Q: What sequence folds into this?
């Protein structure tokens, strides 16, 4: 089975892109499943079910979604293998810009949209910079010039990636993406022992453990303070 | 090809001299490179300790690799002869598996081809095939040749080298910039050498197309529909490197459509125009008829159709004249 991780800021169009891409994969006779990781709520699993795609969802709740994802990725991989998928797509929302969900040698796709603004690419960390493929959505509603500027900004922060424009509504571009996702050679049996491409955002402070009160005396562990000094 | 070993020990100053485009690369990647001409790239990337690497999500190894990749891409972009003289479409099949109704369609630069057919008939797929330079490997099994040859795959994957630029009715400006700043930003991303001149030219051309003129200080989000389309067309004609322009309808308001097409053609573009408007369809030299996911036929605009076009244009002018007069508060009279 192949595993592909797809990440991107909320509402960037991940689910639409995946649904359209799976249509093309299925036409090639491939069996595809999806695992949807989110934080508090998602009904995207219903969309996948409606399309007849086997799906599991995981909600991280109070935990950092990245940490939750990586703690469960082996289990879902085993689920996918057991179901006999040719390809398992893990979809996760990158809820913070320091998000870093990619695994070495596992194909990584970042979905980001033209409406997020030209300064967004430089604000996003490993989720964009270390992706193999960057999919840019919502190109049908902005001008050609803005599309070109946005793509060139993405290229500046990740020159290694293949950058593709996909229209999540019509599916234009999704066939092309589908040709890049499955390759017999990339088959995985287990992820045990594999490594992340980049460390995840870290946090272990009193608030991680349920503290609700405000004030220095309640802050313990990994605490960092904002710098309010005037810079010289 | 420049490898990472060739740049790792070079000084920032001399790298910037050879590759001035690196400054935007460093800037976008949040590197503090100003006044550091005498450090080497290795020193600059190496000075982050482990905590700082985590903190700022910097991976020096990846950064070095990507710097080399970026230099190679930009050098290729600047030196490349990307000229597209012709585009050839070789037939595939429609949704029922029937062979398409033409043998080979060669489109040359400065030619306008319209695309007609019901909504959902396969116009997007045709565009998709062109953009992806299909080699009988898409659902339609069409093949696309550039300058008569099988093109190399960089057309598929390069960011700076895109075959098709698109202009559509639904497009809007979303940036918070005025007209000049906006074009400058676009020019910068295209590594244009004389941005000032280009900005001038685009604004002049756009104003020739627009019914109501605008200045370089106008915020792009407050342009009218006609002005926006005029600016998008002039900007795409002059600044976009893509040799093929796909237009998805041009609404008949606030813009001189004939002039817009002529501008694109004078910039030696190949223009494909998906339309339901008879005037636009007949303005083209030829039209592609799409049915059931395939190209059913390719029709050359006939002499008789050209006379019909003149009649339609006359009607169009009449409608526009009434429109202008109504907007001015006049009462219409016959004749």
A:
């Amino acid at each position: 089975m192949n595993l592909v991780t797809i990440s991107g800021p909320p509402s960037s169009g991940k689910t639409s892109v995946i649904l359209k891409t799976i249509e093309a994969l299925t036409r090639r006779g491939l069996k595809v499943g999806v695992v949807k990781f989110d934080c508090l709520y998602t009904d995207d699993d219903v969309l996948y079910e409606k399309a007849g795609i086997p799906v599991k969802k995981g909600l991280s709740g109070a935990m950092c979604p990245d940490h939750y994802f990586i703690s469960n990725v082996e289990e879902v991989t085993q689920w996918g293998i057991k179901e006999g998928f040719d390809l398992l797509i893990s979809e996760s929302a990158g809820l913070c810009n320091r998000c870093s969900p990619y695994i070495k040698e596992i194909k990584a796709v970042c979905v980001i949209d033209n409406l997020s603004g030209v300064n967004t690419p430089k604000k996003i960390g490993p989720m964009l910079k270390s992706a193999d493929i960057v999919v840019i959505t919502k190109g049908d509603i902005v001008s050609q010039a803005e599309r070109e500027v946005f793509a060139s900004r993405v290229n500046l922060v990740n020159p290694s990636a293949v950058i593709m424009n996909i229209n999540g509504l019509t599916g234009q571009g999704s066939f092309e993406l589908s040709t890049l996702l499955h390759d017999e050679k990339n088959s995985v049996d287990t992820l045990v022992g594999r490594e992340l491409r980049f460390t995840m955002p870290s946090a272990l402070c009193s608030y991680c453990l349920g503290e609700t009160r405000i004030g220095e005396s309640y802050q313990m562990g990994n605490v960092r303070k904002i710098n309010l000094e005037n810079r010289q | 090809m420049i490898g990472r070993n060739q740049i790792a020990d070079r000084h920032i100053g001399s790298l910037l001299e050879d590759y001035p485009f690196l400054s935007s690369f460093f800037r976008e990647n949040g590197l503090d490179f100003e006044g550091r001409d005498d450090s080497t790239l290795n020193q600059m990337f190496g000075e982050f300790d482990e905590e700082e690497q985590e903190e700022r999500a910097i991976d020096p190894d990846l950064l070095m690799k990507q710097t080399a990749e970026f230099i190679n891409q930009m050098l290729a972009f600047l030196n490349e002869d990307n000229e597209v003289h012709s585009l050839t479409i070789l037939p595939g099949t429609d949704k029922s598996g029937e062979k398409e109704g033409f043998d080979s369609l060669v489109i040359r630069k400065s030619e306008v081809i319209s695309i007609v057919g019901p909504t959902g008939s396969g116009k997007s797929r045709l565009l998709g095939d062109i953009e992806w330079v299909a080699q009988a490997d898409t659902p339609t099994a069409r093949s696309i040749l550039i300058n008569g040859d099988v093109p190399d795959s960089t057309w598929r994957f390069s960011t700076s080298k895109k075959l098709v630029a698109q202009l559509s009715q639904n497009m809007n400006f979303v940036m918070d910039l005025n007209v000049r700043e906006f074009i400058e930003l676009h020019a910068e991303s295209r590594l244009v050498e004389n941005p000032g001149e280009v900005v001038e030219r685009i604004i002049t051309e756009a104003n020739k197309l627009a019914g109501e003129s605008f200045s370089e200080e106008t915020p792009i989000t407050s342009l009218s529909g006609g002005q926006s389309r005029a600016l998008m067309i002039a900007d795409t004609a002059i600044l976009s490197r893509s040799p093929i322009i796909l237009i998805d309808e041009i609404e008949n308001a606030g813009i001189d459509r004939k002039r817009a097409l002529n501008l694109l053609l004078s910039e030696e573009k190949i223009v494909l125009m998906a339309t339901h408007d008879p005037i636009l369809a007949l303005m083209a030299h030829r039209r592609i008829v799409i049915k059931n996911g395939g190209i059913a036929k390719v029709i050359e605009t006939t002499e008789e159709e050209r006379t019909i076009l003149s009649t339609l244009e006359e009607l169009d002018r009449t409608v526009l004249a009434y429109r202008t007069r109504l907007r001015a508060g006049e009462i219409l009279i016959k004749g």
Notes: Strands of chain A lie at 2-8, 32-38, 55-59, 87-93, 107-113, 133-137, 162-165. The mean pLDDT of chain A is 90. Chain A touches chain B through 47 residues (CB under 8 Å).
